[in-house]
Amino acid sequence: MTTTHEAGWAHAAGALRGPSWLRRPADPNELVPALWSRTARKHDGELVVGGVGLADLAAEVGTPAYVLDEDDFRHRARAFRDAFAGWDVYYAAKAFVCTAVAAWVAEEGLCLDVCSDGELTVALRAGVDPARIEYHGNNKTQPELRRAVDAGVGRVVVDSLVEIDRLVAVTADLGRTQPVMVRVTAGVEAHTHEYIATAHEDQKFGLSITSGDAMDAVRRVHQAPGLELQGLHSHIGSQIFDASGFEVAARRVLALHARVRDELGVEMPQLDLGGGFGIAYTTQDDPADPADLATDMRRIVIHECRALGIAEPHLSVEPGRAIAGPAMCTLYTIGTVKPVRLDGGAVRTYVSVDGGMSDNIRTALYDADYSATLAGRHSDAEPTLARVVGKHCEAGDVVVKDEFLPGDVRPGDLLAVPGTGAYCRSMASNYNHALRPPVVAVRDGAARVVVRRETVDDLLATDEGVA
Predict the structure, then answer these.
(1) Exactly one of 111, 329, 393, 424 is catalytic; which is it?
(2) Has 329 been annotated as catalytic?
(3) What CATH number does residue 139 fall under?
């Protein structure tokens, strides 16, 4: 446990000892299987994923690079599909999407959740059936809504009263009827980071059940021409490890569902309970198995529906990062290793890699924890506590706050960080005019680039001052 310091967590008392959950390993070369994709292993010290040695891959495509384990991704998609059989499972495009991934999602029988015109474009370009797409977002513009309705998306999740008016205008102009879900906030405080808890009252998403805004929105959708009321949508947050929070949310959302039936005479056919299930970034994380989550959530819904005397609606769930997150790791090359001597004689080892907050902003943004391993060779050196940092001009450019690495880690070594499949490439930037890394899918000993590395020409393509 560390205490607050005016210069940030990196300088807090006790920080040099690392967090209490981080244990000194007997062998820093070994992988912790729970943190890695299912095909990841070490062979003579080299990290191998999908049957592809990452040293050879680095030599071919360079670093940094995102390495996507296709077999792992598909396995996790099927696990949620099978566990929640009879429900619709929506993959979150915001976690990570490209045309290859969107195609995998469709092939494995999942639906797709998008929240921008760009994500919708990728899904349609990949051949995803529009009827299996839902369109989210708290500030959808009229052109975006028009594109979604014109494409025939299966449902639009409305997030405000003004959006209902926009959608009515769009459907009238196109002569279409659009299925609609109403996103509601159930007032549940999910045990997660403030920025990814989404069902408490004081935040931008959804319409409050408590204030009456949610019922007002449902009434408007029901009465609006061109809109077809399908049901309610609830989402309590992200990086959720068990179903306890869903119990309170389901009770409140289903109570509104019953009220709609009683007051408006409408038996809404659908209910989306969200999801946002967590993954293991470090050994402190203990994510639930999809089958256990499904069992618990089914029990909750059955119990609440019986108590309210309502029929069970057709249910949807959104696993969030739980499919893409563990399926990817990021491969870096170490550039410098700097022992920094602090007051009292303590030393912190800073390991600088050739990426950083431009390819993984989550440590800086959410104070997220990650792990890392030496990926290109075996070491017989004793483990040493290190901090993995990026190359950007920011003191907060940290990739892994604390990790035990071999004491002889040196420039030129390859380093891999697991659990980077969700939000890392999606939130990647050109900060310091960095080029965003490629995404390389690996499977059965073969590698293929599914998103290429950016080039300087890409970087300058929008710069109107370039002759």
Answers:
(1) 393
(2) no
(3) 3.20.20.10
